[in-house]
Design goal:
Length: about 350
């Protein structure tokens, strides 16, 4: 069976947008752990737009928010030194961004539901691959992530990277990499790094399929929060649903119930010794969730209705602490999040 997955680095414009929002949320949580936050971000060229709602005891000025946005982009690596290397026609620099803000307060209709249950209705899915050496991820997704991670930190090329893995019966048959390169001779270095990974020594490797990739970041592509959900979750091995886990605080089911679905899948996989898929659904203002736990053949392991405590789950996952940007760097699951409760 042919299976495939992809991953994108933090320098990809969509992930830049995700990271800006998560970085800003951390700054609110640091000062007020009970901050309520839902802020979407779009970045194109040198222009960033933030829109959404924040209710917090910590009141940030417009200048403070803009300073945090610029710091987030610099933190990714889009600094003045990086811009000087690649040129203003090819990339961005956090210090020079224009930033527009369209941020209000949380709707009182939503706020009243948080005292009695979840902050929204939604559907959520979890997955855990049993018996793998990939921390419960499918092998093709884990490999795509590791290739992207290693290229991002290699210094060979630019920050805006995509990796795609094609496997046939668990054999790697093709790797596709998109990575900005100033010198096309560096293609060989990229291929060499790829082939050092387990199982990649004899597969087909394609680096920059058009033959040239220099202009990148939001100069070349518009970035929007929440557009890389398959990348951030399970890479196609599992259904995804509900909203984006990024841009939301822990009172939102979009984040917390996705983490809960993953934890349920991990527990069931260890008990049943098979791959497990979990489906959840919730209602705004209610604590009850419907759940279904199945194996890879869709045989039901367990299903029913469960009473949950949103506030307790938020504390359990430490979502009242500034861990949001670190969650965003390399996806919610896998070996880069082993310090998080849901992955231990």
């Amino acid at each position: 069976m042919i299976r495939f997955s992809e991953y994108v680095s933090l320098g990809h414009p969509d992930k830049v947008a995700d990271y800006i929002s998560q970085y800003l949320l951390d700054r609110y949580i640091e000062r007020d752990p009970d901050s309520r936050y839902a802020v979407e971000v779009q970045i194109k060229g040198w222009h960033v737009s933030l829109g959404g709602e924040v209710t917090s005891r910590h009141k940030m000025t417009v200048d403070e928010i803009r300073s945090h946005v610029r710091a987030a982009v610099n933190n990714i690596g889009y600094t003045r030194a990086y811009m000087d290397k690649w040129g203003t026609d090819n990339t961005i620099c956090g210090d020079l961004l224009d930033i527009d803000l369209y941020i209000g307060q949380q709707s009182p209709d939503i706020a009243q539901g948080l005292s009695s249950g979840w902050g929204d209705q939604g559907i959520f899915f979890g997955y855990y691959a049993y018996g793998s050496d990939t921390c419960g991820l499918s092998p093709e997704h884990a490999l795509a992530k590791e290739l992207c991670h290693d290229l991002f930190h290699s210094g060979i090329g630019g920050l805006d990277i995509k990796t795609q893995v094609v496997m046939d019966d668990n054999r790697v048959v093709k790797i596709i990499v998109a990575i900005p390169l100033l010198d096309e001779a560096d293609t060989a270095k990229v291929e060499s790094l790829v082939r050092r990974h387990k199982g990649c020594g004899k597969c087909e490797v394609i680096v920059n399929g058009t033959g040239r990739y220099v202009q990148h970041s939001s100069i070349a592509d518009c970035g929007t929060t929440g557009r890389k959900l398959a990348v951030d979750f399970y890479g196609g091995a599992c259904r995804i649903g509900g909203g984006s886990p990024w841009t939301k605080d822990g009172s939102k089911a979009d984040l917390t119930l996705n983490l809960y679905a993953r934890e349920l899948a991990k527990e069931a996989a260890r008990n049943c010794q098979c791959d497990v898929f979990v489906s959840l659904a919730c209602c705004i203002g209610k604590k009850q969730i419907e759940f279904s736990i199945c194996d890879a053949a869709d045989n039901i392991i367990a299903d029913g209705i469960e009473e949950t405590d949103p506030a307790e789950l938020r504390r359990h996952y430490k979502l009242d602490t500034p861990i949001y940007a670190s969650m965003c760097r390399w996806g919610l699951f896998g070996r880069h999040q082993l310090d998080k409760v849901w992955e231990r």
